[in-house]
Structures are given as C-alpha cells and as structure tokens.
Amino acid sequence: MKIFILFNHPAPYKIKLFNGISNVHELHVIFERLQNKDRNKLFYDGNEPLFTIHPIKGLKLGNENHFSFGALNHLKKNKYDLIIINGYSTITEMLALRYLKKNNIPYAFYINGGVAKKENRFKHRLKKYFLTGAKFYFSPSEVADKYLLNYGVQQECIRHFPYSTIFEQQIVEQRISSKDKRSFWLDKNIDEKKVFVTVTSFIKRKNNLELIKCWQKLPKDYGLVLIGDGKEKKKYLKFISEHQLNNVHLLPFMKSLDALEFVKNSHGALYLSRYDIYGHVINEALAMGANVIASDKMVATKSLIRDKQNGLVYDYSSSLKDMILSLDQYDFFQEATNTARGNTIEKMVAKHLQIIEENK
Question: How large a percentage of the chain has pLDDT more than 70?
Fold first, then answer.
C-alpha cells in the first residue's frame, strides 16, 4: 500500500514506528517542523528514516503550532491508499483535515493520548468537527479513548496499539545488585545510599517542585536526581539552595539511552505530573525494572500501572513521603519488565501493520 502520514515533528519513537511500517508498505511522511521549540536537540538523536519525507515550507507558531498549505497541496497532487492525520491542533493539520472532509476523501486519525477537559461550547464544537469523520482511529489505550468519545467518535471505529519508545532488547533481564548501584552513583559523585530518579521537563505541569519539597521530609541518605531542563530550573535551584537540600541533584537533559542507565540504577523512578496525554517515561522505567511511583493524572499510569503489583499509583491524597519510604517493601522487577515486554516498538509496529491490513 501507498501510505501518507502527516505528523508535527520527527520524534525518535515515531521514526522507529514509521521505519517499521515502511518495511512492508510504501510510506510517505510530512513533518510540519524539524523540531518543537520546547524540545532539546538531543531528543531528536535517533534512527535514520527509511521512508520518504516531503519537506514543506511554513510558519512556526509557538512551541508546536504550524501554518502551511504544504500538506494540503501535497494531498491535492498525490493519491494514496491510506492517509493518516496525526492530530488536529496545528493550522497545517486543520487545513489538511478540512480538505479531506470537504472532498469526502477517506482518512484515518491518530492520537498519541488525550485528556478531556471542561471547555466552552465553541471550543468543544470546533474540536468535534476536526475529530469526527475519520474512517477509523488509532488510540494507545482505553483511557485515551475517552478523549475521542467525548467529541462524538464511535467506539467501534477505534483501534488500539501498544505505545512504546523501547525495543525488546532494551528491557533489562536481571536486577542490578545493590553493590553495582552504589558504584554507579559514586562514579557520578552522588553518595546517598538510596537514589531516586525522574527524567522530566522542568515545567510546572510536571510538578517537580512538589517532589523536591518532599525531600525536606526524607532521610538525608535518600538522594533525588532530576534529569532534564526547562523554564523552572532556576526556581528549583533557588529552593534547593534556600533549604540546603544537598541530596537533591539536577542533571542536564541527556540522550534517552543515557537517561535509562540512571533509571536502571535507581531505587525508584518518580513521576508526579499534573497531567500527561500519555507519558512514555512510565513504560521506560518499567522496562528498566525500576520501582515506579506515578501520578494517576498520567494516561500511561492508568494504562500500565497496576497499583502494588507492578508499581505504585500516586493520587495526590496520598502521603508522598510515606509512599517513597514504603518502596523498600516492594520488588516490582518481574511484573514491571513483564508489562514492558507487552509494550515494545516491535509490538507497536506489528499492531499498526495489522490495523492497516484489516482496514484496507
């Protein structure tokens, strides 16, 4: 089949997915921009694309928005067996969707996740217009389905796929010994006996300051490592300095493979986001065999974490301090890695190919 996909930016896990699809089908992709404004350049280190990319000219608006007639004009000039539109939030995507709708051209719609929010009637109707009308929908989980259903999409049109950034070979086979963990952290000049990690963006939505504040109440031999960057970095540093939290460490954004080593050697991976339309860091931490504490506001938490079976669910009414202290009581390694094995890039590609075949 000759397939076309419109997507906002070349995220590494999308490149891997598209490469897998291109092994079977002739795949053509338009990326609206080469990089989102709020993404570190290291984020885009990854595999080389094996599919055809069609560059378009356009105007970048804010962190993610984009205005171009390029995708619309491409669709006018080219015929495809399957057209997939990944999102509706940019002007470029809206123009493409309007053209497809107006001309009764079948297409599939793709979401990476989603959280329905209260909004005014106009905004709701606008979203409903752009979200409805596809032949079928790709959704990463039943939790994300609620977003589509909220705008009038029919459940029978939704197709599920495992959502992953991890290859099967990356999943940890054996636990890291306490001795090796200790050696790993000492090599990084971090000498706390137990070290907890969060790979995150330093922005308000990720709720990292709440996590840092909790470290005032924890034993001094508990270390916290935050890996990332963002607008709130100065705020974190100021709080850490004012409260003499010498056991809290901020490390710069790093390549995914490097960050996973930190998670693998942690005593727990902690994620307190106020909301995430998905949250790949959850599956990545499970793949490293880490004991995970994850906010119930993240779609990935609801989709992947079974409380006290393969991780702990934090619901904001819980005592975060007590939950962190309780992690020693659990060994989620086997259940965590088993969950991750059900959510690999290989399985994601295979499921996409199956959905495409079944919806010719």
Answer: 99
